[in-house]
Design goal:
- By secondary structure, the chain is of the alpha+beta class.
- It is built from three helices and nine strands, in the order αββββαββββαβ.
- The protein has one domain: Jelly Rolls (Sandwich), CATH 2.60.120.
- Strands 3-4-8-7-6-5 form a six-stranded antiparallel sheet, with helices on both faces.
- The chain is globular, with a radius of gyration of 24 Å.
Length: 191
């Protein structure tokens, strides 16, 4: 009986060793984006339909048009919205979390360039198919319009499999973003 138990133990050990050696370890490569250079050539974007202009690195391609109450990107990480209604950041701040609102860790009144703004820094989770990542948003108001600019930690076409890790903002990208906002001019007419 003792020999039978030893034999079964040896066979099971060999079987388990063979199974473990056939497992494939899959490593996910981190999302790597090149480090932005703040000293690149810059251009000025005139968003005629949304009544503002802003300077940006030439590699941050802006949209061809701007229509109020729509969201657009300058480059792949800077989202902006201009309009009077459905201002997610304003509604989330007034009513609190829920209904797709991101986590707002720091909300403060600031001056950037010569304009008053609300600066919101926080993160968004994986709920609703979002990619977990940090963000910083600036909300400007002039007359009846809100001008909202958000820097996301990841490009708008990023694909991440790890929904448990919140991707952080990079300081160099934040520096470029805030330098862009210092050039922002609201309600500008070209002509």
């Amino acid at each position: 009986m003792k020999k039978l138990i030893i034999g079964i133990t040896i066979i099971m050990s060999v079987f388990l060793a063979a199974c473990n050696s056939q497992k494939e370890e899959i490593e996910l490569a981190p999302v790597i984006t090149p480090e932005p250079n703040i000293d690149l050539a810059w251009d000025t974007y005139f968003a005629d339909g949304c009544d503002f202009q802003i300077s940006h690195p030439i590699s941050y391609v802006p949209p061809r048009q701007c229509v109020k109450e729509n969201s657009y990107y300058i480059g792949r990480q800077i989202e902006y919205f201009v309009g009077e209604e459905n201002i997610r950041w304003v509604v989330c701040r007034e009513r609190g979390l829920g209904d797709g609102c991101p986590v707002m860790e720091v909300v403060e009144e600031v001056v950037i360039g010569d304009k008053d703004a609300t600066r919101i820094r926080g993160h968004i989770g994986a709920i609703g198919g979002n990619i977990p990542q940090e963000y910083v948003t600036y909300v400007f108001k002039k007359a009846y319009d809100y001008y909202i600019f958000t820097l996301w930690a990841l490009p708008n076409d990023a694909q991440i499999n790890d929904v448990a890790t919140i991707s952080p903002l990079r300081e160099k990208e934040l520096e470029i973003f805030e330098r862009m906002l210092e050039t922002l001019e609201l309600k500008v007419s070209r002509g």
